[in-house]
């Protein structure tokens, strides 16, 4: 079982390293998405730079690879905590992909796929809450909120949400939250944020996933 777990961790990482957000714009628009918009290879930047229709399969692929990683672990008979480690490996692959020089995305949708396979109810919660804030353009803050709440949901509501391994899943969700929020905070400064104070930069990244308050300037920084 230990060997199976190790092989699934490797498979999860390699699966996560395959980026539809990079490949589809390359195939259909002949562009490197990293050189446009925010420079990210996630669905949001794909939608801004190309079209919402291309962003849909990118989103589905990102969610799907998280779900597939956990599903394979379930087929192998691993427990919930071990399943979650394989899913986390897919998120790590998404964020630091071996095929793209270890520069990937934030892992939000891949994490959604992982969480949904562990608990569909928690998956539904982390899907819905950010989009409830979409009318006031605070989806990024909504993402921060649900990621922060993940361990609390699995610890305090494990029974109604169908979590069997309360401690193992909660610890896994803590690790997942640290990975996702860490990718927001621990990155190099951009030219737009050279004069931004360190404390302000930290909270801009943590809450809003950008270096500066001006969302429009941030989104268009690499265009043209």
Please give the structural blueprint.
Blueprint: H1 2-16, H2 20-29, H3 43-49, H4 52-75, H5 80-95, H6 108-118, H7 120-132, H8 139-156, H9 166-185, H10 198-208, H11 215-219
Helix pairs in contact: 1-4, 1-5, 2-4, 3-4, 4-5, 4-6, 5-6, 5-9, 6-7, 6-9, 7-8, 8-9, 9-10
Short description:
The protein is mainly alpha-helical. The protein has helices at 2-16, 20-29, 43-49, 52-75, 80-95, 108-118, 120-132, 139-156, 166-185, 198-208, 215-219.
Structure, explained:
It is globular and about 50 Å long. It has one domain (2-219). α6 (108-118) runs antiparallel to α9, α7 (120-132) packs antiparallel against α8 (139-156) and α9 crosses α10. The chain is mostly helical and 224 residues long. The longest helix has 24 residues, at 52-75. The chain has 11 helices and no strands.
């Amino acid at each position: 079982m230990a060997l199976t777990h190790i092989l699934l961790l490797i498979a999860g990482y390699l699966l996560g390293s395959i980026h539809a957000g990079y490949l589809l714009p390359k195939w259909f628009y002949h562009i490197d998405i990293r050189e446009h918009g925010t420079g990210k290879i996630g669905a949001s930047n794909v939608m801004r730079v190309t079209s919402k229709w291309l962003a849909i399969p990118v989103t589905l692929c990102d969610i799907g690879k998280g779900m597939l990683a956990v599903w394979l672990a379930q087929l192998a008979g691993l427990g919930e905590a071990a399943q979650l480690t394989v899913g986390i490996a897919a998120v790590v692959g998404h964020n630091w992909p071996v095929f793209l020089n270890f520069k990937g995305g934030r892992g939000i949708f891949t994490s959604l796929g992982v969480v949904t396979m562990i608990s569909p109810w928690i998956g539904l919660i982390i899907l819905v809450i950010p989009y409830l804030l979409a009318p006031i353009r605070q989806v990024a803050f909504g993402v921060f909120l649900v990621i922060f709440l993940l361990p609390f949901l699995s610890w305090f509501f494990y029974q109604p949400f169908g979590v069997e391994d309360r401690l193992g899943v909660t610890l896994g969700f803590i690790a997942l939250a640290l990975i996702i929020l860490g990718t927001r905070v621990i990155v190099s400064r951009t030219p737009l944020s050279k004069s931004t104070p360190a404390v302000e930069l930290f909270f801009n990244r943590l809450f809003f996933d950008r270096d500066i308050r001006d969302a429009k300037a941030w989104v268009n920084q690499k265009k043209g």
